[in-house]
Q: What sequence folds into this?
């Protein structure tokens, strides 16, 4: 029995999770896999109903489940709220409370989508990288933090970038383990020339690498990495980095793939995981049937692979997405206007994946 939690959240989170769940249910029913899906409100939706972005009830649903499917949170409406009540706190709270320290963000370029990338074809073609982002530490959660009054009447805002050996070791191990199944290259990204905590990061990663003699480890400063991601995205395989650097670099890497609407993610602690598209709630297009559901559909594939060892089912979904793209279906974010392309909405894209899946499963 798969115990799943479904937190659609706000904005396009609602539309994209709907398509992903449709695809998932079809596949599970077809394969007679039992599942249970419990829904919960998170983010702005939860704030509107209960006055806070993450309630104990929702957290309990997450804790009691094997995996969480998450849409997106946030919206202009909730921006004026104090930081602890903002929708984003739901996401951060779930990550922290479930100790989902390993965030996997694959960024690959589909050959048929090369035109959708703002980068030149000859530069992005063949890009296939995985960003392993530390997700429960660093400056996102470090203490002390806050905004204080100064004697002169002005204010002081501060956050703390902190990493312990143990935190670095566990995320480094994840990166090396995964790299063994890929091209056996790990790049650790830090700012060790300026920040002591990331100098420790670099040293601990080097230490962990001794247990992986087959894997080639290299290091790069984050500023240089952000440049190289644009200059030669194909040179990257596994990137392991801190919470904040991983947040920024993964958005940047998404541009190689054409659209942030294509990028799935898994946030893991062992088999337990939360699966979400890396894009946000996109209030500007919410409710208009314009959002790209593929990142969420691909996140569900990651769920089948990482939480349930259903590699075949994950492959089916990934193959179907590839075929749908090959067949020219495009939501606005990946539509180039080229001849032969079919501009579709969120639900039609979901349907297209579903019918591909039906073909694939029956061959
Ligand atoms: C992400 C998002 C979140 C983050 C926000 C919404 C809190 O940008 O998942 O990348 O900063 O981690
Ligand atoms: Mg981000």
A:
């Amino acid at each position: 029995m798969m115990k799943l939690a479904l937190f659609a959240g706000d904005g396009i989170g609602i539309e994209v999770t709907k398509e992903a769940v449709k695809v998932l249910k079809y596949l599970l029913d077809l394969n007679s896999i039992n599942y249970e899906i419990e829904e919960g409100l998170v983010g702005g939706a939860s704030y509107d109903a209960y006055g806070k972005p993450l309630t104990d009830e929702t957290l309990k649903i997450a804790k009691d489940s094997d995996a969480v499917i998450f849409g997106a949170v946030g919206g202009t409406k909730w921006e004026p709220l104090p930081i602890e009540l903002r929708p984003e706190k739901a996401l951060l709270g779930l990550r922290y409370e479930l100790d989902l320290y390993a965030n996997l963000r694959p960024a690959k370029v589909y050959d048929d989508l090369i035109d959708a990338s703002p980068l030149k074809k000859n530069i992005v073609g063949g890009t296939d990288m995985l960003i392993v982002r530390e997700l429960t530490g660093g400056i996102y959660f470090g203490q002390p933090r806050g905004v204080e009054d100064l004697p002169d009447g002005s204010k002081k805002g501060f956050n703390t970038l902190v990493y312990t050996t143990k935190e670095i070791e566990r995320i480094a191990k994840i990166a090396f383990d995964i790299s063994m199944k890929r091209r056996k290259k790990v790049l650790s990204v830090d700012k060790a020339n300026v920040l002591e905590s990331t100098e420790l990061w670099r040293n601990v990663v080097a230490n962990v690498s001794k247990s992986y003699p087959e894997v080639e480890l290299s290091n790069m400063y984050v500023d240089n990495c952000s440049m190289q991601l644009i200059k030669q995205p194909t040179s990257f395989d596994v990137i392991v980095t801190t919470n904040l650097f991983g947040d920024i670099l993964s958005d940047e890497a998404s541009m190689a793939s054409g659209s942030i609407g294509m990028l799935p993610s898994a946030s893991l602690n062992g088999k337990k995981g939360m699966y979400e598209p890396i894009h946000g709630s996109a209030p500007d297009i919410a409710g208009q049937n314009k959002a790209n559901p593929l990142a969420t559909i691909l996140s569900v594939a990651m769920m089948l692979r990482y939480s349930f060892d259903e590699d075949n089912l994950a492959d089916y979904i990934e193959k179907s997405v590839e075929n749908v793209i090959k067949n020219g279906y495009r939501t606005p974010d990946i539509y180039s206007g080229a001849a032969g392309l079919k501009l579709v909405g969120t639900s039609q894209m979901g349907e297209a994946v579903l019918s591909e899946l039906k073909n694939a499963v029956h061959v």
